[in-house]
Each structure stands twice: as structure tokens, then as C-alpha cells.
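Re: the 444-residue chain
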Amino acid sequence: MTDNIPTSGFSRRRFLELGFGAAAAAGLAACGGGKSASDTGAGATSTAKFTGGYDGPAVTLSYWNGFTGGDGPFMKQMVANFMKENPKIKIASNTVEWSQYYQRMPAAVQAGKGPDVGAMHLDQLATNAARKAIVPIDDLAKALGLSESDFTPEVWQAGIYQDKRYGIPLDVHSLAMYYNTDSFAKAGVAEAPKTKADLEAALDKLKSKANKNPFWMPTKWPAHLIFLSILWQNGGDPYDVSAGKATFDSDAGVKALEWMRSVVDKGWSPKNVAPDSEFVGFKNKKLDVHWNGIWQINDLKASNLPFKLAPVPVIGEKNAVWANSHNFYITKQSTGDKLQAAKVFIDWMSKHSADWAGAGMVPARKSVRESAKVTDTTQGPIAAEIADLHFLPPIPGLGDAQQQTLEIAVADSILGKQKPAAALKAAASKCTKLMEANKAKFGG
């Protein structure tokens, strides 16, 4: 979830806008149509028996990922450590920004020039599974002894599409609340707000004691993720998977978006926050409270800003927050010795995912996550509340449909161009039509 953003953070958020929507659609268009050569069944599953190790001839695995930012060095070191312990397996990494990644990978696989093994966002698995760019790996999960009990039901189940597993979770990463500890101390705010009442009281104190606008409500990224989090907190769901329709225009959604607009109406936020300016502003002490992903931790540490991280406050009725996950996958071009080596690689990376916590992520595996190496990190408070993380459902093409509808409705409402109820109703109707079109395109 992290691209090249060591300074301003702009490219990261720009990527995320692309990675969740248009770029994914472009990647699918590059493959053409809803069918692929793999529909014949060749290479459709990873059938080589996993033995726990690799004793075949020397092999080189093509490994694709998008860890081009501050997380990149951690991944490179993990790959180097793997090769040191497994000298017969060479990893040839192809690391590109995620927006380009989702454009290139499906087409490369169809041409036989893609990865043998790779990392992908959880919400991209269903789309790429429907395109036959990645293959089921239920046998690998079984051979590794992995089950829902060592993860959370939400992240484990989200890797399943049409009753088959396509991803092995490496991490989870969610929205969180960052706050300036110096500003909080000066304003007399003793601790991180946990509820709507706590947050609003803190913002009133911060507004009078420090910055005029202590909490900038973004109109673009990650505004729709804030919306989804509060919708879930209000007891709603953005999509009805069984009915195949968008439901983010429910009362829960309207309440969420009305509160987001109220942050502007009450003067805690400027009226029009340009993309990424809230992150840059937080780094430059122009605001005191900032909601963004935990992948920003190392960037903020490098800025020497006095900050702490806490879970997103409960604006609704219960704890809930949007999250995503990096998952390992295997493609149809990984066969024979390469397939066996790919399974060894995924097994090793999963077992050593505590090292990945240094990149600001939360290891997905409970057995790793509960170690002191993770609980003592900045993101430890998020790891402690992992059961409250929510993921988008595995619906092919959902990212692009959401970008064309929900994200626009959220932006227009925060800007005051439309009332939340009307904006969400129109967006949900359009999104449902796009979902129906995607179902016809992808099948299922």
C-alpha cells in the first residue's frame, strides 16, 4: 500500500487513488475481455505437493511487488535473508509503483513474462482471480498449516473468491489517528480521543488554543476510507454481496457523511482541502489531528514531528475502521520446481513477517503479531484492535466502480456541492449498475 513518498506524501496518495480504481481497470483492459488462455485449465491450480523445503536444482523466481517507498528497504532485506537461508532459490525482484504494477502484471502473466510469485493488495485479488492472472492456492494454505485461527476471520475470508483461496496475508494496514503531542499538551488534552464526544471536545480546545483549523477533512484520498470506517461504525455495510448492489446510501452512510461535513461546518477544517495538503500540513504543524494510514509512520518519524498514533475514534456506535492487506499470490506460469520454490518463499516470508513490522505494517498472523517485536512498535495500538478492522468484499472490478461513484459523492458532500443523502443515493444507483456490468464481464 505504499509507493515512493519519502517527503511530501503526494505520490503515495495519488497512487492509492489509482491503485484502488482506474489503474486496476486499466490493467484489466490491457488483458482484453473476460476470458484468458488459462480458461483451458492449464496451470489453473498450484498442484505441486509442498514438502516444507526445496531440494531441487537451482532456480530463479520472478517476484513482483510495489514496495518502492519507505517499506522497500525492509522487503529487500527480507528477500536477501531468505536467499541466504535458501541458496538454491534466487529471487529476481521487479519492484514498481503500485499504479503501474496493476496495469502491467495481468498482461505480463498472459504473455508468460510476469511474476512466478508476487505481493498484491487484498482488494485486488478477486479482480485478478476473475481474470485468471493468479491461481488458487488452497493447497498451499493447507500444507503450511495456515487457517483462520491464526489470522482474523475478516482478513482470512477476504482472500477467498468463488470458494477458492487466492492470497496468503502478509500484513494488515488500516487508517489510524495521528496527533501532535505538543499541541495536545498546550491545549490541555490529556489523551487521545476515543469517542465522538472526546474528539469534538478536543477539537474545540485545540481550535481555541492552537491552530484555527485543527483537523482538516480531505475531499480526496483518504476521504472515502474515512467514510467507510464511520459507515461500518454506524452498523452499515457499503455493499450487499449476495444481492450484488451498493448499499452505502443507507442511514448509516448518510450519518457518516453528514458528520464528515460537520467538521467543516463547525470550523475545525478548512472548506476545501486540496489533495495531500492535510498530510503535508500535519507534518508542518498546520493542524493537530490527522487521519491516515499506518504506512505513514516512518515518513512522520523522519520529519521529527512530535506525534503519537492511536486508533480512529468511534464516531458511530462501535469500533470499526477500514483496512487493507498485502497478500502473496502465485501465477499460472509458476510450475514444477518454480512452483515448489515459490511455496517455500511464501512460507518463509509469512513466518518472518515480524521483520515486516519495521515498515509500519501489522503482521497478519496472530502468532507473529502478538510477539514483543510487534506489540512494542508505534503501530502496536492498531495491532491490539485488529478484530475491528474491516475489508472490502471480494468483488471483481469494485475498486473502479467505487472510484467513479462513492469517492465523487463523498467529495461533493464535503465541498457542500450536494447534500449527503442525495449524493449517496445517486452514487449507489450508479455503482450498482457498474457492479452488474462487471458481473457480466467477469462472471460469477
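The chain has 20 helices and 15 strands.
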